[in-house]
Amino acid sequence: MRLMLGAEAVVIPLGALLAGFAAFSLFLLVLGKSPVEFFALVWKAGFSSAFSWQNTLSRSAPLVLAALCVALPARLGLVVIGGEGAIVLGGLAAGVTGLAVGGLPGVLGMGLMAAAGMVLGGLWIGAVGALRIKRGVNETISSLLMAYIAIALFNHFVEGLFRDPGSLNKPSTAPLAESLRVGDMPFISAHWGVVAGALACILCWILLEKTTLGFAARIAGDNIRAAQVQGLPVGPLVIGFTALGGAFAGLAGFFEVSAVHGSANGSLIAGYGYTGILVAFLARHNPLAIFPVAILLGGFEASSGLIQRRMDLPDATILVFQGMVFIIILLSEALYGRFAIFTPAYWERR
Amino acid sequence: MTGRKPRGAITVEAVHMTMKFGDFTALDDVSIKIRAGSFHALLGENGAGKSTLVKCIMGFYHATSGEMLVEGFDAQMTDPKAAQELGLGMVYQHFTLVPSLTGAENLVISRADVPAVIDWRAERARLDAFMQTMPFSVPLDQPVSRMAAGEKQKLEIVKQLYLGNRFLILDEPTSVLTPAEADEVLGYVRAMTRAGEITVLMITHKFREVTAFADEVSILRRGQYVGGGKVGEISIEEMSRAMMGAAPEVSERNRAETVKTPVLTLKGVKAVDSSGLKTIEIDAVTLHSGEILGIAGISGNGQMELMEILTGQRRLTGGEIRLNGQPFGMTRAEARAHKLRYLPEEPLRNACAPRMSVAENLAFRMFDEGPGGRSAFWKDGRAIARNATALIEAFKVKTASPAARIASLSGGNVQRAVLGRELSGEVDALIVSNPCFGLDFSAVSAIRDRLIEARNTGTAILLISEDLDEIMELSDRILVMSEGRVSFETPIETANVTELGQHMAGHG
């Protein structure tokens, strides 16, 4: 019975994902392309070989962290969709810090870079939470608009104050010292950001499910009046959870800069923050589910180049796919509690 | 039915109206005649059947039996449209204007026959001509959102007249107005009835408005017509007695002698009310241990705001609240240290997280209780499960399983669950708001027993209730709130329902 009660949270998103696949297949058929070929290519590019897994995993690392920036505020009933801003600013902070700590031993230097990224990301999204609590500003809109501001600030600094004069046609900060580059893990050819993402998911799960803070956040997210009557610190909870989510997104920015690009530049603005929203919703904001879902979507992102070349489809095809899945996931939210088989009453009667 | 009377007031009569909802009789054989050109007041407590009666008149409800006469002719109120065609209109307690449109736009779009393309110049000319016939003016070119409440209320009335309605029902028209605005609006309405242009039926619970403006009054209590007549021939005492009924027996429940020491004191407390227009001002209230202090009042007189102040949901703009002599900031730690608990009204809406399970909802108070009074960091799942099993058993909460969502429980069971959560363990002070609202008789009785039991063991209980019978049955001392202030205080021994009723109606 307990199994069946929990199954609802797996069956419905899985069904929605499959429905999304079906809808996208129809879209491909209308374009005169083969859905079979599409999914075969996704498999090939994303999951079939060690090389494709490396590609998939390195894309899923920032997705995991960006998804946490959605899932943590979601516990308080907030829909924060501006994780992209925290990733970009976190990356900038990490890149700039890296230039200042070049003389320190690698681990310490990287620690400082990661900390700088997390602090700036946390302040950025924490401000969204503070605006909500203190001024009643809608967090969805403010986080989205702040993401645009973050990207503009990023461009301003990378093309101005922090620009490496050597970066000619792609404005970048100065390249990081080799000792400050996060390397690949042993055995698996993917960088340590994957492990950091997995650890962050486990930490968040513990915070949400095993601590009184997580429980208080759920009460406030479900009924803020009840939380206030109980005297729970709703304001600090909102600001704390949004800031923590922003810190994880900032950490994603650090890994992108240190492990992938080697400096802060325009490649950082890759839309991971937005795909992270889809990951979090598919995972029902459950941190443990975020990791596998991020790998799945990381695989789709990794396959976009191959699909473009082989099927003669535009780059944006994967975005169409993601958009379709997202809409069906949002629709599926209305299904919870509608199936008698998933309710305790059904099992009590038997 | 003859054709509709083009101008002037009409007579409306309800004959032997009965309305049943299942087993519940909301309206019991009520007959009421509102003569053409009269200003008729309909008095009654919350739930007396006033709204049901006017909804039957307006065709929103189909009366179980009884009939309606308009100008002496039988009228079938099959739906609200039928009522409108006969010239019956209603002004609701809350505004139904579109805030972003101007007064003129609101008037024109309210018509049933507006064309798809509106010739604003012609409409405007017609409107100006129409306004010439009105006894008062309203700003037609201003967006409604920028109007004062009194102007909006006048516009609502003008809208009904513009639609050609000659019989108006006003549902507590002054509840959102300041006293000066109320006098102005009602003065105009009375002038129009005197001029024979309209007939008015006004729902109210304010005696002052009845005596100052109405010609006739009808009083309902528990769905029955219990009195009425010409204003001036019936005294305020008679109205009050009819409205409140005979004094209920002061409880036979066993009241133990208790030691009374001050627990909660409010001094000069000030806050803005929910409309943002008026202030709540409570000069001095002291709640003692071992007593139930009842706060009576008609809904909308500041009791809801008082509850919000005490639960920390509404900010104080002045004054101070002390708990056991120490300043009280309404935090969880303070409430826990002083063993203060809350029972807000409508528990599912105000005290539960509807999508969380019964077990989790039962844990709201204990989940962060650590050893030695410190708050715990780790959630103890087993303790939460044990707590749930114990409370479900002790308070007889009927649920399919502790894992069921609390929203799937019946109202009585939700109330029992919340009662269990808040009344378990030692309770020194309890703040309760309308605890029996919407519950059946046996649940009500069980909850009242619990409150008396807690009082007898020395708990200080502040009972905010709109049900005067409940206040009379449970309280040791009664305060009346009216217009955001405490207007009257009496010990239960000398409490008198008629007198309380007058104070509740703002007629002290």
Automatic annotation (TrEMBL), chain A:
InterPro entries: ABC_transp_permease. Keywords: Cell membrane, Membrane, Transmembrane, Transmembrane helix. GO terms for cellular component: plasma membrane. It is found in: Cell membrane. It holds the Pfam family BPD_transp_2. Coiled coil: none annotated. The keyword Membrane applies. The chain crosses the membrane at residues 56-74, 86-104, 110-131, 143-162, 190-208, 229-252, 264-283, 288-307, 319-341. It is a multi-pass membrane protein. GO terms for molecular function: transmembrane transporter activity. This is Beta-methylgalactoside transporter inner membrane component.
UniProtKB/TrEMBL annotation, chain B:
Its EC number is 3.6.3.17. PROSITE patterns: ABC_TRANSPORTER_1, ABC_TRANSPORTER_2. Pfam families: ABC_tran. Residues 10-247, 264-508 form the ABC transporter domain. Keywords: ATP-binding, Hydrolase, Nucleotide-binding. One of its GO terms (molecular function) is ATP binding. The keyword tRNA-binding does not apply. InterPro entries: AAA+_ATPase (IPR003593), ABC_carbohydrate_import_ATPase (IPR050107), ABC_transporter-like_ATP-bd (IPR003439), ABC_transporter-like_CS (IPR017871), P-loop_NTPase (IPR027417). The keyword Nucleotide-binding applies. Gene3D superfamilies: P-loop containing nucleotide triphosphate hydrolases (3.40.50.300). It comes from the Bacteria. PANTHER family: CARBOHYDRATE TRANSPORT ATP-BINDING PROTEIN MG119-RELATED (PTHR43790), GUANOSINE IMPORT ATP-BINDING PROTEIN NUPO (PTHR43790:SF4). This is Ribose import ATP-binding protein RbsA. It comes from Roseisalinus antarcticus. The gene is rbsA_1.
